[in-house]
Every structure is written in structure tokens, then in C-alpha cells.
Specification:
This protein has a single domain, classed as Rossmann fold (3-Layer(aba) Sandwich), CATH 3.40.50.1820. Helices cover about 45% and strands about 15% of the residues. It contains ten helices and eight strands. The chain has an eight-stranded mixed sheet, with helices on both faces. Strand 1 and strand 2 form a beta hairpin. The longest helix is centred in the C-terminal third of the chain and has 32 residues. The protein is globular, with a radius of gyration of 18 Å.
Length: about 300
Amino acid sequence: MTSYRTALVNGLDIFYREAGSRDNPTILLLHGYPTSSHMFRNLMPVLADQFHLVAPDYPGFGYSSMPSIDEFDYTFDHLTTVIAGFIEAIDLQRYSLYLMDYGAPIGYRLATQHPERVETLIVQNGNAYEEGLDDFWQPMRTFWQHKTPENTERVRQALVNKGAQLYYTTGVRNLENLSPDTWTLDEALLDRTGNWDIQLALKYDYQSNVLLYPQWQAYLRRYQPPTLVVWGKNDLGFLVEGANAYKRDLQNLEFHLFDTGHFALEEEGEAIADYIRQFITTHVVKEDTMLVASRK
């Protein structure tokens, strides 16, 4: 069963989902935009027989605390500080990181701060290379370069008008595969008073992630974490070129593209779960077993 819990971190209530025994290898699942840990609702029970799974909501997302932009500095550095505090609060020592969309910049910050804790990476539509950021990002780049009231309002209106549904439906094979519960929940949470200001602040700060790409690539080259890429190839925001770029720096890479969009778990959850099971069993469970045997 999945449990629904809250941890107190720096005065904030951080909601998280947890499934599986702590005796098993841990997967820390870091969600993307515009959703929350809800995106992992189907994946967690499927893998809970073999793994320990933890999926937090960031401040301003899901069921975690949502302080206003005057009360909390909504940057990816600050979100990472909170999630690092969350990791300490629930006492996670070592883990695989599932990196998706916003989860990638948070996860790579965590990985570069504590590379010794990371057993493997699972990357699903999460960028560490500029190749994946094409024309779709041009209005955002203009916003980064010139944060005028006009550009700010233009981005705000684009976010509000797109809503969440577009992120789920673009690039999928069959709309009937998708539950409208997903974007309906996301949009309800986005429409809370003050939340669009939060999202706008994070969209502006996303430029800090792009500046750190070289550092994250250096981490990949140096530490060579075993990495599983499971990528929805029809994502307009995180292009397949961003997935292919991982091949440049990683020697121990398993790579799978899926004919779907941004939220690949919605159409390809079973296949992705199977790949994760095989991958972590090979790179964590078997290696730990071999290490114990060698000590004997």
C-alpha cells in the first residue's frame, strides 16, 4: 500500500507518498511541472514489492505548504534546500533518483552536493543539455533576458491559458488512454490564490538551471552513475535531442524512447516500471549481493 505522510522541514509541511519496505533499495521520485507526486500514483504500487519509493511534493505544489512569494524565495536552489532537508528528516541514506522535468534540476543539485548517496539515475524528460531546449523556449528566454512588465505578463498569460491539460495531451498516441483526473487536479492546485505568482517566479529562475548544465554534465562524466533514460519522444518542451545528449557523457547508459508526450508514465507506465525493475535489480540489488559475497 502507498502511505500519505507529511514531514516538517524548515517550518514547512512537505507532503509525500511512500510505498515499500525500507529494507529494499530506495527510489526518490522527483516530480515535474505542472503536477506533483500524484504523477507517480500508479508507478509506486507496481514497484513496491521490490523497492522503497518516496515521492515528495515541492513547496507550492500538490499538498505541501504554499507560502506566498513574499514569504518564500521560489528558486530551484531553495526548493533543493527544502528537499535536502526532507531527505534528512526521513533519514534517506542512499537512493536512486527519478528525475522528471523540474525534478531534474532539483535532483542534479542533490547529486552534485552528495554524489556518494546516488546509486542510479532514472531520467524521464528531464534536461541537462541545451540541445533539448528549442523554439518552444524562445518566449521564456526573452523573459529571462528582459523581465519587463510586458514580458512578465505575456508569460503569465501563456501559463494560465495553457493550463495543465496541454502538457498531458500533446504528443500522446490515444487521448482515451488518459484520465482527465490528472489535469483537473493539477489545474485546481495551480488556480489557488497566489500560485501563478509562484509558477512565474520558478519559470524566471529556470535560467539558473541552464547555467548549471556544464556542472551537471561534468558530474555525469566524473561519477558515471548508472543511468536509465525513459523518454516521451513527442514532448515539445523537452525534445528528444535532450535525451540523446546523455549518450555523450555516460558509459553505463540504458536508453528507451516512447511514442508519447511529456507525461510518459500515463501511456507507458507498465513498460517504464518493467525497465526500472530490471535496471535497479541489475545495478543496485545484484551489485550489493556481489559485494556482500566478496566480503565473506
